[in-house]
Recover the amino acids of this structure.
């Protein structure tokens, strides 16, 4: 049995050294009881040495884990705790001090407690571990928790902290609950037993220790209590067993190789005297410190064996996860990527191509809306469609033809465009001048459409990379960044060409004003026909007064826009109507053409050429050989994970050996 416990202890120490004590639960004996019920004395009786701090009020303010390992010719006491600091590797820094004498342990625990609590009267959950390796101690692991106190106003915070800490430990299904209760007090009032019954209602993992038997009054009969029965209704106390002990103070000893049998002699004698002098002789064989240690060891081994199957499963699962983690940190052997395991290839080229293929597949599928990249917002090709048919369309619709010119300014341009030649009805030069000016206003918005599409395609590329080759980002950041850089360069070149084609697409409407456009011709004939119906023939009357003004004027001739005639205003409105009509026709054409140009010269170019571009740029040995270098952080993580994997394998092997022992 001792060998089994020793083997399990080695396994537990290994798991704890790997930082897995939060992921894997080991059976442990949790000691809980009132503040003055004698918990410390029970622990010291089990260890056979006096080593815990003594004092008034709440002395134990942190959980104290007592690990006892029995080994021949080995003597070692170690007190350790996490200091709260981090070492250079990012792991918690553990303070550890090795002692040669039990007499020094209490002071060291007190110093550790002050460090963890900052010298304040508070409860903390950080463990102080006291590991004793000696041939004089049993193979047990116990955790001493702060004693439960009464709820009083001045200690309300302390009370809540203690209750929360006790509940945390008792809820662990692997915990064996050792309830300590004074034998002279009614068992129904046991605060420790009430806490245990909340998490272990049937008492299957609860053991009750009745302490201070020698202080029970001679007139008091605790036979039922020692037999595990309630004083009130003769029902069984909800626990596996009740064991009574006498709390005889152990003397402070020098060293750790003292004869435990001699140290316990006084306590055993006191316990024998109690049972012989009282009327409990028939119960003597089931009680006492010796029976307590023996029973705890038996139950402890039962729990160890019962927990082993799940422990093996947990270790195997953690090992598989770690192996997967190491694999995701990058392939060690690129040979697995060679086609038909080509003996002349080291697999690096094939690996790079596989990364490019993964990225390009996700990129193209996301553009076409066949892959969801996890964003709640509209993304990919759907956002491009929205940009074309909503944002771009709205930007063009916001352009008001001739809206930035007054009627007088419009008429001035019409008159000046005619020059010396008088026009009967439609001055096509004036019409073209006004129309070209309005068409030019659509060029900047069309360029913005192309730039916006470029931004969205670039975002799609980045999201596709994060989704499809996120492992490469961690393992080979140089390769990951090279892919994004090449994509960025590729799209920049395509944007230049696309902007050039967009400008051509707008300016070709500026270069050639087609007044014979079928839709415009109908509108033109309608407007001019209306104008003819309202026009009147006027006689050519020479106005002498204006002539004399002109002849005597010494300044340049200017049109008086404030004195436009009714006929001139109607003619100006005719021009404005025709310009707006032609602009609307052209706007619809451009709004349809520009997105097609963007898709043709940018989006579809990504689909058609990006794989070829990346392969040509990165599929060169001189290039990819420099990119397939593990980052320093990943290389360090691989080494750490590799070392941890060896520990996992060792732990799995130890668990297998325990299963067949």
């Amino acid at each position: 049995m001792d060998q089994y416990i020793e083997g399990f202890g080695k396994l537990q120490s290994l798991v704890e050294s790997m930082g897995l004590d939060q992921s894997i639960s080991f059976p442990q004996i949790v000691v809980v009881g009132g503040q003055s019920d004698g918990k410390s004395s029970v622990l010291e009786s089990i260890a056979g040495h006096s080593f815990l701090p003594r004092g008034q009020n709440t002395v134990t303010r942190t959980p104290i884990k007592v690990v006892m390992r029995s080994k021949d010719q080995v003597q070692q006491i170690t007190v350790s705790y996490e200091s709260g600091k981090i070492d250079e590797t990012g792991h918690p820094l553990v303070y550890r001090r090795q002692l040669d004498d039990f007499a020094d342990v209490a002071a060291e625990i007190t110093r550790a407690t002050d460090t963890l609590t900052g010298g304040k009267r508070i409860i903390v959950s950080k463990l102080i571990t006291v590991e004793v390796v000696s041939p004089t101690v049993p193979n047990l692991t116990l955790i001493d928790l702060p004693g439960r106190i009464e709820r009083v106003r001045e200690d309300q915070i302390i009370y809540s902290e203690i209750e929360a800490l006790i509940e945390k430990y008792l809820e662990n299904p692997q915990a064996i609950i050792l309830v300590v209760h004074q034998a002279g007090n009614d068992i129904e009032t046991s605060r420790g037993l009430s806490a245990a019954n909340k998490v272990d209602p049937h008492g299957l993992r609860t053991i009750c220790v009745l302490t201070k038997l020698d202080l029970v009054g001679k007139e008091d009969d605790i036979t039922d209590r020692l037999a595990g029965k309630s004083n009130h209704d003769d029902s069984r106390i909800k626990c596996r067993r009740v064991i009574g002990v006498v709390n005889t103070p152990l003397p402070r000893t020098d060293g750790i190789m003292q004869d435990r049998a001699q140290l316990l002699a006084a306590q055993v004698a006191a316990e024998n005297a109690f049972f012989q002098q009282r009327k409990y002789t028939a119960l003597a064989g089931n009680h006492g410190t010796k029976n307590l240690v023996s029973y705890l060891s038996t139950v402890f081994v039962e729990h160890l064996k019962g927990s082993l199957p799940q422990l093996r499963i947990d270790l195997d699962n953690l090992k598989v996860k770690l192996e997967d983690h190491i694999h995701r940190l990058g392939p060690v052997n690129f040979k697995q990527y060679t086609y038909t395991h080509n003996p002349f290839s080291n697999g690096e080229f094939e690996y790079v191509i596989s990364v490019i293929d993964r990225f390009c597949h996700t990129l193209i599928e996301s553009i076409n809306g066949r892959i969801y990249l996890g964003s709640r917002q509209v993304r990919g090709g759907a956002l491009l469609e929205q940009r074309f048919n909503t944002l771009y369309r709205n930007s063009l619709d916001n352009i008001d033809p001739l809206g930035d010119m007054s009627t007088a300014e419009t008429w001035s341009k019409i008159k000046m465009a005619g020059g010396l030649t008088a026009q009967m009805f439609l001055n096509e030069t004036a019409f073209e001048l006004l129309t070209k000016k309005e068409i030019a206003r659509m060029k900047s918005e069309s360029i913005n459409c192309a730039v916006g599409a470029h931004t969205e395609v670039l975002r799609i590329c980045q999201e596709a990379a994060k989704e499809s080759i996120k492992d490469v980002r961690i393992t080979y950041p140089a390769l990951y960044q090279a892919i994004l850089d090449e994509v960025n360069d590729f799209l920049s070149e395509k944007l230049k060409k696309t902007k050039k084609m967009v400008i051509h697409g707008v300016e070709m409407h500026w270069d050639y004003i087609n007044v014979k456009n079928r839709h415009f011709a109908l509108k033109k004939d309608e407007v001019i026909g209306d104008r003819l119906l309202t026009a009147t023939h006027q006689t050519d009357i020479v106005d002498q007064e204006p002539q004399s003004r002109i002849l005597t004027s010494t300044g340049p001739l200017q049109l008086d826009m404030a004195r436009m005639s009714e006929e001139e205003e109607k003619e100006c409105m005719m021009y404005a109507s025709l310009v707006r009509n032609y602009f609307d026709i052209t706007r619809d054409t451009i709004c349809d053409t520009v997105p097609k140009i963007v898709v043709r010269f940018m989006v579809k170019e990504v689909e058609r050429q990006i794989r070829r571009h990346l392969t040509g740029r990165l599929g060169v040995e001189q290039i990819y050989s420099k990119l397939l270098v593990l980052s320093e952080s990943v290389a360090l993580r691989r080494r750490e994970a590799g070392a941890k994997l060896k520990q996992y394998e060792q732990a799995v092997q130890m668990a297998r050996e325990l299963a067949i022992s």
